[in-house]
Design brief:
Elements lengths: L3 E11 L3 H11 L5 E8 L12 E7 L7 H16 L3 E4 L5 H10 L3 E6 L3 H7 L7 H16 L5 E4 L4 H4 L7 E3 L28 E5 L8 H11 L7 E7 L3 H11 L5 E6 L5 H10 L2 E4 L13 H8 L3 E4 L3 H10 L2 E3 L8 H9 L14 H14 L3
Parallel strand pairs: 1-2, 1-4, 2-3, 4-5, 5-6, 6-7, 8-9, 8-11, 9-10, 11-12, 12-13
Keywords: Transferase
Organism: Rufibacter hautae
Protein name: Glycosyltransferase family 4 protein
Length: 380
C-alpha cells in the first residue's frame, strides 16, 4: 500500500514540539494510510520518540534574530522537494509563503496550524522595540490574509481564534492543547480528593516559559508570603527564558532563597521532564499578568496541571476560572494582593477533585477529531 506523506513544519519550535510532534504527529501516525514527517528546530529527541513511526527533520538551527533565519527558508524548500508531502501542516506564519508556492506547483494541500494570534502578540507584547512590533504585526496579518484563500483548512489552538482571525472563514477545526500523558506512564495516580494541608513539604510549581508577562516574579513573591504560614512551602521553576537579561534578574532574585529551585533557564527543557515535575508537586501556579494576548487563551499547562491532579492557583480570568470551578481544581488568588490567614486556611483545608480527574482536559477527543479531518482532506 502506498501511503500518503504528511509533513508537519515549524520554524521556531523544536522538532520534538509538544503540539506538532507529540499531539498532532503521534495522532496522525496511528492512521495506517499515511507516513508522517516532522520538521522543526534542531533539538535532542526524547528517549521515547517514535522514530519508527515518524521521520524527524531537525533542519532549522539559527539565532532568533539573524540572517540564519532567512537561510532556513532554503532548507525548508529543499525539504519540501525531498519529502514530497500530499498534506503540509505549517505551524509558523514564516513558512506559509514557500508552503503556498509548493502546494501551487504540486499536488499538496496546505493546512495552517494557528498556535498563536501573531498579529495581537506582535502589537501588544513589545518583544520588538518602538514601532517595529506594529509593523511586523501588520505584515504578518497581511501575509495571512493573502494566503488564506489557498489554505485548505485551519487548525486553531484556541476557541477564541474563531472570532479573532477574520480570514479563516468556516474551514477550521479547534484543537486545543489538551493534556497528552507520556506513553511511558508508570507513576501511581495521585490520591484523590486532594487536601493540601496533608502535604509536607508543600511543593509549588511554575513551569513553561520563564518571563515577566507570565508572572515568574509573582510566583516567587507568593511562595515567600505563603511560607509565613506554611514554612515547608517550596517552589520549583522549570522552563526556558528567551530573554537572557531577564533570566539574570530571576537568578539574582532566587540566589539567596533556599526554598526555590530553578531548572533550565538558558536551555530548552524537554517536555517529559516538565511533566515529571508536575507529578512531584502539589500546587500549579498560573500568575499570568492580565494581557490582551493571553486573556482569551487557555494555557497548555492548565490542562496538564488538572490532568495531573495539581491544585491550580491563578489570577482572575473568567475563562480559566470556569474550568477550575467545573472540576474543583483550584482557586483564584490575585498575586498582587497580600495573602490573609483566612485565605490560606481555606486553600489548605478545601478538598479538590472530589469527582476525580476530568476527562475533558485530555487530548483523546482532539485526536479523534484531528484524524477525521485529515482522512477527509486526503480522501483516505
Amino acid at each position: 500500500m502506498i501511503r500518503k506523506r504528511i509533513l508537519l513544519a515549524s520554524l521556531l519550535k523544536p522538532v520534538s514540539d509538544t503540539r506538532l510532534y507529540e499531539k498532532i504527529g503521534q495522532s496522525l501516525a496511528k492512521l495506517p494510510q499515511v507516513e508522517v514527517h516532522v520538521a522543526g528546530y534542531n533539538a535532542p529527541l526524547p528517549s521515547y520518540a517514535q522514530s519508527d513511526k515518524i521521520t524527524f527533520h531537525p533542519v532549522f538551527d539559527f539565532k532568533r534574530i539573524s540572517f540564519g533565519r532567512l537561510g532556513a527558508q532554503l532548507k525548508y524548500w529543499r525539504l519540501l522537494k525531498k519529502v514530497k508531502p500530499a498534506l503540509l501542516v505549517v505551524g509558523t506564519h514564516e513558512l506559509l509563503p514557500l508552503g503556498w508556492l509548493y502546494c501551487r506547483l504540486h499536488s499538496c494541500q496546505l493546512v495552517y496550524d494557528v498556535q498563536e494570534n501573531y498579529f495581537l502578540n506582535l502589537l501588544t507584547q513589545k518583544v520588538y522595540p518602538g514601532v517595529l512590533g506594529k509593523i511586523l504585526g501588520h505584515a504578518v496579518r497581511s501575509l495571512e490574509h493573502a494566503i488564506a484563500p489557498s489554505i485548505s483548512h485551519f487548525f486553531l489552538a484556541e476557541e477564541a481564534y474563531r472570532l479573532e482571525l477574520p480570514f479563516i472563514g468556516h474551514r477550521y477545526t479547534v484543537l486545543q492543547n489538551k493534556y497528552l500523558p507520556p506513553t511511558q506512564e508508570t507513576s501511581v495516580p495521585r490520591s484523590l480528593p486532594v487536601i493540601l494541608q496533608e502535604e509536607k513539604p508543600l511543593r509549588l510549581l511554575y513551569s513553561g516559559t520563564i518571563s515577566r508577562l507570565y508572572g515568574v516574579m509573582e510566583a516567587i513573591t507568593f511562595t515567600q508570603n505563603l511560607r509565613q504560614w506554611v514554612p515547608s512551602a517550596e517552589l520549583t521553576i522549570i522552563g526556558y527564558a528567551a530573554d537572557a537579561a531577564f533570566l539574570e534578574e530571576v537568578k539574582a532574585r532566587v540566589a539567596p532563597l533556599c526554598f526555590v529551585t530553578l531548572l533550565g533557564g538558558n536551555t530548552l527543557v524537554p517536555h517529559n521532564e516538565i511533566l515529571a515535575q508536575e507529578k512531584l508537586h502539589h500546587i500549579g501556579l498560573l500568575p499570568y499578568r492580565p494581557h490582551p494576548s493571553t486573556f482569551t487563551c487557555v494555557p497548555t499547562k492548565l490542562f496538564e496541571y488538572i490532568g495531573n491532579g495539581l491544585v491550580v492557583i491563578m489570577e482572575s480570568n473568567p475563562l480559566w476560572q470556569k474550568i477550575l470551578q467545573d472540576h474543583e481544581a483550584g482557586v483564584v488568588l490575585p498575586f498582587a494582593r497580600a495573602i490573609t490567614p483566612k485565605k490560606i486556611e481555606a486553600l489548605l483545608e478545601k478538598p479538590y477533585y472530589q469527582n476525580g480527574i476530568p476527562e475533558q482536559v485530555f487530548w483523546m477527543e482532539e485526536e479523534s477529531t484531528l484524524q477525521g479531518v485529515v482522512i477527509k482532506l486526503l480522501s483516505l
